[in-house]
């Protein structure tokens, strides 16, 4: 993973059912290979105690294209002793201007989730 200072893409997770950060959630970043139409994993990470995973990709590796973040939410809820409807959450998004900064938060409970582009 890239250093937090140089990463143009960040994320954080909030456990909205308990009102706490989503700590220790494994996640992976993928980019779509438009020639083969397959996803290529380009990085992995884990949210910290604050629910953040800041160093997802370096500025140099961040190029225009379609990306997805996959959050391993089922394992998180299982660790908390809760049942979850979603074994994982994938957020797919398109980057047209990689010079911009992007923050993609995930707000989740065992039976729902939402995301948006933050800044």
TrEMBL record:
Keywords: Hydrolase, Purine metabolism. GO terms for molecular function: hydroxyisourate hydrolase activity. SUPFAM superfamilies: Transthyretin (synonym: prealbumin) (SSF49472). This is 5-hydroxyisourate hydrolase. The keyword Membrane does not apply. It catalyses: 5-hydroxyisourate + H2O = 5-hydroxy-2-oxo-4-ureido-2,5-dihydro-1H-imidazole-5-carboxylate + H(+). Belongs to the transthyretin family. 5-hydroxyisourate hydrolase subfamily. Pfam families: Transthyretin (PF00576). InterPro entries: Hydroxyisourate_hydrolase (IPR014306), Transthyretin/HIU_hydrolase (IPR000895), Transthyretin/HIU_hydrolase_d (IPR023416), Transthyretin/HIU_hydrolase_sf (IPR036817). Residues 4-119 form the Transthyretin/hydroxyisourate hydrolase domain. The keyword Magnesium does not apply. Its EC number is 3.5.2.17. NCBIfam families: hdxy_isourate (TIGR02962). Homotetramer.
């Amino acid at each position: 993973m890239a250093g937090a200072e140089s990463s143009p893409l960040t994320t954080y997770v909030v456990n909205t059912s308990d009102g706490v950060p989503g700590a220790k959630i494994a996640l992976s970043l993928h980019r779509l290979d438009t020639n083969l139409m397959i996803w290529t994993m380009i990085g992995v990470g884990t949210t910290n105690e604050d629910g953040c995973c800041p160093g997802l990709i370096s500025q140099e590796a961040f190029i225009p294209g379609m990306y997805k973040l996959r959050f391993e939410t089922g394992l998180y809820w299982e660790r908390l002793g809760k049942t979850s409807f979603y074994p994982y959450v994938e957020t797919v998004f398109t980057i047209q201007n990689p010079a911009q900064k992007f923050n993609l938060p995930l707000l989740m409970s065992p039976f729902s989730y939402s995301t948006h582009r933050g800044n």
